[in-house]
Specification:
Elements lengths: L2 E3 L1 H10 L7 E11 L4 E9 L5 E7 L2 E6 L10 E6 L6 E6 L1
Parallel strand pairs: 1-6, 2-5
Antiparallel strand pairs: 2-3, 4-5, 6-7
Length: 96
């Protein structure tokens, strides 16, 4: 399982969240909404220091991660982060 970020997504984080070297971006399971795997849960994202990293991708010294306690949410799929052309918002998909 891994986190894959498109070039557009990496640029989105730089522009919209003003990430800098050494920052940590967490993807996590949040209560509410729905996902392909779990009704009542959706994916959240925040800038936050890690407690126990389960999965991590580091690009230009920026850490994108999932806590070990949230790995269940992804159902053994890779998280793919991109940006929608129409809305300029992040999109999430899951690949086996």
């Amino acid at each position: 399982m891994e986190i894959r970020l498109s070039e557009k997504a990496l640029n989105w984080f730089k522009q919209e969240m003003e990430v800098e070297k050494g920052d940590f971006i967490r993807f996590y399971a949040r209560y509410g909404g729905s996902s392909p795997f779990h009704e009542g849960f959706s994916l959240g994202m925040t800038r936050e220091q890690p407690h126990e990293i389960g999965i991590e991708t580091v690009v230009e010294d920026i850490h994108y991660y999932i806590e070990k306690s949230d790995e269940w949410f992804f159902n053994e799929h890779h998280l793919v982060v991109d940006v929608a052309d129409s809305s300029d918002e992040l999109t999430y998909s899951y690949e086996k």
